[in-house]
Amino acid sequence: MNPGTAVTRQPLLKRVNTLLRYSPGHRWYVPYLFLLPGLTLYILWMLYPLVYELYISFFDWNIMPGQVSEFVGLENYREIFADSNFWFALRNTALYALVTVIGQIVLGLAVALLVHRVIFARRVFRAIYYLPVVTSWVVVAFLFLYMFNAQAGGLINYLLVSVFHVLPEPVAWLGNPDTAWVAIDALGIWKGVGWSMVLFLAALQGIPVELYEAAAIDGADEKQQFLHITLPLIRATLLFVTVMLVIGGFNVFISVYLMTGGGPLHRTEVVLSYMYNRAFGRLRFGYGASLSYVLAAIIVTINFVQMRLFRRPTIEY
Amino acid sequence: MISANRRAYRNVNIAIFVILCVGALLAMAPMLYMVGTAFKPDAYLPEFPPQFIPEQPTLANFETALTSRNFVQAFLNSVIVAVSTSALVTTLASMMAYAFARFEFRGKRFLFYTMLVMMMIPSMMFIIPQFIVASRLQLTNKLWGLILVYVAGGMAFNCFLLRGFFEALPRELEESALMDGANHLTIFTRIVLPLSTPALSTVAVFSFLGAWDEYTWALTTLTDENVRTLPIAIANFRGVHATDWGLVFAASLTAVIPTVLLFIFFQRYFVQGLTAGAIRG
């Protein structure tokens, strides 16, 4: 066969095929049959709610059957911008995301570097650090609630007051907004470190050892090797982990809902707990829907900005 | 000279090992504290000083939890919900992934990018419209209402994960089967799925855990006692005024043990699933 004709002919054939939406060996509807059951559920429970929620957000929605919902246009959104509780909740959410994302990345990377270099029991260490990740949020929220108990016998108070003498007297951690955040942030970091560790570890294992050997021969010390080999080569993972952790940070709900309930006086409210309380506590579904939309818009924007900032040509080696 | 180098190398390794052991202890400490507390009688307040190993260990908390009818019912409900979710997600997501990996069709790019952007949005954003849809379809207070929403919620991520795996499979087998007149359903069930057991296991295990631990949607749609799942049942052991934490943690431990076993047996698939997601991202 003449290779020249094959090269020129194939793209043309392909183009005709895509034009007619015809691929050899199957009828046009075959892919749709494979999509049908999963896509039906996805449309009903994800895509339709996405659109429907926008619609709801323009109403003073009434959940009771037979009751009429009043169209209020952009009134809900206008209310959000004037709602100081919302802004405070957004500030809390952003701070939680900032603290826990940094904490999880720094600790996760540190543990990954150590686990990568340890000679034995690597899988055991990986499993132990990962264990909190697979434990349910409800369980660990209660666990931290108990550990941060206000009594002198609460584990954290006992350690800080009686063992290390860092604090003069027991602290009512969950009773005060500032100290409540310490407990909620600590839980977020403790539960998440294992996840970023596993991803960083996989990335580290993908770096060829020869690179470090060559650098060592050229006289590069550990710090230089880390800055000029390790960091650039785990960049893609770093981006992925950051994006996912930021999404996770803005998703914080169960820990806050179970540990403080947003109190005292809305001071530990995050956007999702505020949305949930407005919608299912006060039955203000329209307002809750517009809160959801505002948060979703914020998160998607942050993600696109992050991806833009991090995007650079991938490194070949 | 060489022996000095080797000694330094060995010291560094010992130091790393020691640091990791201390870190592992810190990571495990809360869990161990929970296990200890689950065996303490009347743990309404933490004792002073805290005990990781109770002075008078008792099984009373486990007895109370396991003899309460609601808790056993909740355990069974969670098994039903998690197993059904896992089976449905694995089946439906792999079918969708096959369509994405092996066909060109109208709307493919649009659907692909829509699902990608949707994955960025926290699932709880949809809870209000989902609740209204569930009420209209009379799916509140039913286990099916949980299962369908969990399946739909896991569809995008698992579809992408499996699509990446399917695309990496060699096509020669499928092409020769096509030549022999096999249809796509046969190819999918007889060639693609059997070759993909690691990826399918990953999806099955992650979906099971997700459904087993889910709290918010269950809290929102379930009010009847007989349809409660484990996270709701555990949260209900917390008292309004005083909480018997031993009981809460005994119930928690009962719920956590299956997930830990699953994790230990399938550790390989966890790592695969996580890193597959990272490469796609």
What does this structure look like?
The complex is a heterodimer of chains A (317) and B (281). By secondary structure, chain A is an all-alpha fold. Chain A has helices spanning 3-20, 30-56, 75-82, 84-117, 122-134, 137-147, 155-163, 177-205, 209-217, 222-233, 235-250, 254-259, 271-281, 285-310; strands at residues 59-60, 70-71. Chain A contains 14 helices and 2 strands. In chain A, strands 1-2 form a two-stranded antiparallel ribbon. In chain A, helix 4 packs parallel to helix 8. Chain A is globular. The model of chain A is unreliable at 1-8 (pLDDT under 50). Chain B is mainly alpha-helical. Chain B has one domain (67-280): MetI-like fold. Chain B has helices spanning 2-38, 60-67, 69-102, 108-118, 127-136, 143-168, 172-179, 184-195, 197-213, 216-221, 230-236, 245-265, 267-280. In chain B, helix 3 (69-102) runs parallel beside helix 6 (143-168). Chain B is globular and about 75 Å long. The two termini of chain B are 47 Å apart. The mean pLDDT of chain B is 89. At the A-B interface, helix 2, helix 4, helix 5, helix 6 and helix 7 of A face helix 1, helix 3, helix 4, helix 5 and helix 6 of B.
